From TrEMBL:
Organism: Candidatus Nomurabacteria bacterium RIFOXYB1_FULL_39_16
Domain FAD-binding PCMH-type: 17-188
Cross-referenced HAMAP family: MurB
Family from the record: Belongs to the MurB family.
Cofactor(s) for this UniProt protein: FAD
A Pfam family reported for this protein in Swiss-Prot or TrEMBL: FAD_binding_4
Name under which the protein is recorded: UDP-N-acetylenolpyruvoylglucosamine reductase
Metabolic or biological pathway: Cell wall biogenesis; peptidoglycan biosynthesis
Gene Ontology terms describing biological process: cell division; cell wall organization; peptidoglycan biosynthetic process; regulation of cell shape
Signal peptide stretch: none
Residues annotated as catalytic: R164, S238, E333
Length: 337
């Protein structure tokens, strides 16, 4: 374990924003993590835990220590004829875990294929896509408390997973380092193909749906056609969360915008923020170094030399115009640092 100074983070965030960390360290094992927790530089400085950097926006240099999670390993903890408990360390790449699962014909996370980032960050915002969420399979989370260095196991309920949300984004924000997660996957066929776009893709391409690998490949192919690749153009996926409204608001808005899409689930009504942004004329718009992606209005992009502040400025303008047109407030999904 080696602590570096004045470290350039531009290659460690998918927005490709230039920012420096006063101190930087990579942790490769729990032993290194324990060693780090006792180090005076760690103890005295502000801390930031970094995975794949795919859900953050640096707006300035970080005046503290950035800890890059490189804890690797995937193991089967328990299994019977129906279920399998798979434990993965936090620095594993999320999609590698999906590949491990589908190659073994384990069901449960195939819809979450190709979501960038690490296993350790997945519970933070309860990653979700194509009608599935981490919540559907998460069994527990292992995490080290920063103040005491003690390890704690959080049950799924204790993680309080919600829509792009968890206890780690709220009361326990910056208080724990997530070192591992265990997922409960199914050996029995348990497909989830209710999501319209996925269902249509599987039908149109006559894909055999009794193998999670086929569903994973289908999700990956849809994603590649819709989302910009951060290696080509800097972005952090959806910049904004969808908006929850009540029935009165829905009726009022539908009176004006008859074609407005919405999803209803368990009494909750959700409006796609991408549609709201598109209606305000932002899709494909560029303002200097930053812009809104031409195929997906939820995604803000860095055309090369952008600063975090330029992205924030664009985001604020978008929030303002959505508020003005629809009287709805859209909120960032990305963590602003
Ligand atoms: C092209 C693209 C598509 C995307 N699509 C989706 C999608 O479909 N669904 C979805 O849910 N998300 C999506 N995302 C967002 C992102 O992939 C997820 O939020 C992912 O879980 C972030 O993982 P990460 O390792 O990159 O986290 P980072 O960006 O490194 O960190 C995110 C936050 O988690 C904290 N954190 C990271 N690791 C730890 C740890 N070990 N312990 C404690 N805190 C930690 C960080 O401090 C930060 O606050 C997309 C992003 C991109 C770029």
């Amino acid at each position: 374990m080696q602590i570096e100074s004045n470290f350039n983070l531009s290659k460690l965030n998918t927005f490709g924003i230039t920012a420096k960390a006063k101190f930087f360290v990579e942790v490769n094992s729990e032993e290194e993590l324990r060693e780090l927790f006792a180090d005076p530089i760690f103890v005295k400085n502000k801390k930031f835990f970094l995975g794949g950097g795919s859900n953050i926006l640096f707006t300035k240099d970080f005046d503290g220590i950035v800890v890059l999670n490189k804890l690797k390993g995937i193991e089967i903890k328990e299994e019977d004829s129906e279920i399998v408990m798979v434990r993965a360390l936090g620095g594993e790449i999320w999609h590698d875990l999906v590949i491990f699962a589908v190659n073994h014909r384990y069901w449960g996370i195939e819809n979450l294929s190709l979501i960038p980032g690490t296993v350790g960050a997945a519970p933070i915002q309860n990653i979700g896509a194509y009608g599935a969420e981490l919540k559907d399979t998460l069994y527990n989370v292992e995490a080290f408390e920063i103040e005491t260095g003690l390890k704690r196991v959080f049950s799924q309920e204790e993680c309080r997973l919600g829509y792009r949300d968890s206890v780690f984004k709220n009361e326990l924000k910056n208080k724990y380092f997530i070192s591992a997660t265990t997922l409960k996957l199914s050996k029995k066929e348990k497909k989830n193909i209710s999501y319209k776009i996925l269902k249509e893709y599987l039908e149109t391409n006559a894909i055999e749906i009794h193998n999670p690998k086929n569903i994973s490949d289908a999700v990956a192919s849809i994603r590649r056609s819709k989302l910009p690749d951060p290696k080509v153009i800097g972005n952090a996926g959806s910049f904004f969360k969808n908006v929850f409204i009540n029935r009165d608001q829905l009726e009022k808005l539908q009176g004006i915008y008859k074609e407005m899409p919405f999803f209803e689930e368990d009494e909750v009504i959700k409006i796609p923020a991408g549609w709201l942004i598109e209606q305000c004329g932002w899709k494909g718009k560029r303002l200097g170094n930053v812009g809104v992606h031409e195929k997906q209005a939820l995604v803000l992009v860095n055309y090369g030399e952008a600063t975090g502040s330029e992205i924030i400025e664009l985001a604020s303008k978008i929030i303002e115009s959505v508020k003005e047109k629809f009287d709805l407030t859209i909120m960032p999904e990305v963590n602003i640092v």
